[in-house]
Amino acid sequence: MPDQSIPQARTPDAPPAEPVSGASGISRRALLGTAGATGLVLGTAGGAVGYASAPAGATPLTSVGSGRAMFHGKHQPGITEGLQARGHLVAFDLAAGAGRKEAAALLRRWSTTAERLMAGEAAPHGDTDVARDAGPSSLTLTFGFGYSFFGRTGLEKQRPGALDPLPDFSSDHLDRSRSDGDLWVQIGANDALVAFHALRTIQKDAGSAARVRWQMNGFNRSPGATAHPMTARNLMGQLDGTGNPKPTDTDFDQRIFVPASGEPAWMANGSYAVVRRIRMLLDDWEKLSLTAQEQVIGRRKANGAPLSGGDETTPMDLEKSDAHGDYVVPLNAHARITRPERNGGAAMLRRPFSYHDGIDADGTPDAGLLFICWQADPLRGFVPVQRKLDRGDALSKYIRHEASGLFAVPGGAARGEYVGQRLLEG
Q1: Crossing angle, helix 192-206 and helix 100-118, to 10 degrees?
Q2: H or E segment and range at residue 282
Q3: What is the enclosing helix (H) or strand (E) of 252?
Q4: Exposed/middle/buried for residue 175 (C-beta within 10 Å: 0-12, 13-18, 19+)
Q5: How many Cα atoms sit within 13 Å of 209 on the Cβ side?
Q6: What are phi and psi of 206, to 5 degrees?
Q7: CA dist., res. 236 & res. 296, Å (int)
Q8: What's the pLDDT band for 241 if we cut at 50, 70, 90?
Q9: In this structure, what is the dihedral angle of CA atoms 75, 190, 237, 372, given to the nearest 10 degrees?
Q10: Facing residues of 354 across strands?
Q11: What is the average per-residue pLDDT within 98-110?
Q12: Long-range contacts, 123-128 (Cβ 8 Å, 24+)
């Protein structure tokens, strides 16, 4: 699971500053004024607003609170940023009678809300104060369209071919009520209250135009929890994200984003998100010896190094054999099967959250991964890799795909635009 099918983005989180105290009574806006690099002139629904300096003696935000992602840009936020500590995924279906006009108004509301909340501001209407006194905390909100959205809005001719439903896979045990949806929103932040505040505000913004179809909650390691930045671990204890493509790769944009000249035109600089709720059968996994677990994955559990030797970043030697003539990395090892060179160069940017939704009556934990992967075309990214895994991945015995979705995520909104405007008003 830690290589191509279920790893994480490698961008490390900066460790937090020393804990601070004495901030009671300081408003969220005033605290933001002390955040240094984040205290810039910000655009809001009411125009450009400059944050005022904090009152004398105000305690500055820690680095966790002051972290800020930008709403406007070439791409939507929440794709290339580092992993966040908290996440919410939510899908909506348009209400009966709602169509293109209502969808456009909703995306306009959501975009205004996202811009304000990501800047650490209060919600445009009826803010609940849940995130009062907190900074942006690296909050991101990302919006996408499902296959059914285009039929509901009369935009079938604008539906991308890459959004065709995913094929069935042998590891699928899908709950259709927790799959797909007209609209999809990804929320991530490094503070749980900031993330929940965004989720609640987005839900309220939907009003009568859309209703929640499904919603899932996730988490990752908190920034600064390790002595130095490192690849995170999943709930199986494996380093998870070693094989991710990096923004510094020369072909990164080509693999992850739709080109500016791509079709349809409204998807220029966008990406496609495959979302899978993958339950880990932890009781079975934890019965395996350490050696057996490493044979399933093809990497050392302690440091993520391939079984063929070296450290986490050492290229895997797929031809190396032991004294008995057997491959050191087994033929059915997850890391071997998911190598891009074994899948026609297929690659995707995995940026997931772990989840734990309680313990079943028999004591079995309902836990695993909210797998999210990004690619320019899922038919060249996710699908060929998953088909290969279907044919003999040793890890398949210990996981179960329980929900699935595929969403077209348009490029970022320019200043003065809302997300999806080129589709809905084009």
Answers
A1: 160
A2: helix 282-285
A3: helix 252-256
A4: exposed
A5: 22
A6: -60, -30
A7: 12
A8: confident
A9: -30
A10: 219, 369
A11: 98
A12: 123/197, 123/201, 124/45, 126/204, 127/201, 128/197, 128/200, 128/201
> In the predicted model, what is the mean pLDDT of residues 49-56?
38
How far is C-alpha 93 from the geometric centre of its chain's CA atoms? 20
Give per-residue burial for 99-127: e unless 16+ CB within 10 Å, then b.
Answer: ebebbbebbbbbbbbbbbbbbbbbbbeeb
Selected residue with higher pLDDT from 26 and 390: 390
What single-letter DSSP state applies at residue 376?
S
Predicted confidence band at 58 (pLDDT cuts at 50, 70, 90)?
low
Closest CA to 340 of 382, 391, 288: 382
Measure the CA–CA gap between 410 and 421, rounded to whole angstroms. Answer: 9
Residue 310, judged by CB atoms within 10 A of its CB (0-12, 13-18, 19+), counts as middle
Catalytic positions are 240
What tokens does 348 get? 């995707």
Alpha-helical (H) ranges within 119-213 are 147-152, 192-206
Closest CA to 69 of 15, 119, 131: 119
The residues that bridge with 407 in the sheet, in sequence order, are 273
> Taken in order 220, 223, 225, 230, is the CA torsion positive or negative?
positive
Say if residue 62's pLDDT is above 80. Answer: no
What's the token pair of residue 42? 């910000």
> 345 — phi, psi (to 5°)?
80, 5
Residues paired with 411 in a beta bridge: none
Per the omega criterion (within 30 degrees of 0), is the bond before 264 cis?
yes
What pLDDT score was predicted for residue 20? Answer: 37
Task: Render pLDDT for 382-396 as a digit per residue (tens, 0 to 9).
Answer: 999 999 999 889 999
416: buried, middle or exposed (CB in 10 Å: 19+, 13-18, 0-12)?
exposed
Cα distance between residue 242 and residue 259, in whole Å: 26
CA distance linking residue 326 with residue 403, whole number of Å: 37
CA dist 175 and 121 (Å) reads 37
Q: Please, which residues have CB within 8 angstroms of residue 9's CB and are 6 or more apart in sequence?
A: 80, 81, 82, 83, 241, 244, 349, 350, 351
Summarised one tens digit per residue, pLDDT across range 339-373 is: 877 677 788 999 999 999 999 999 999 999 999 99
First to last CA, the chain: 41
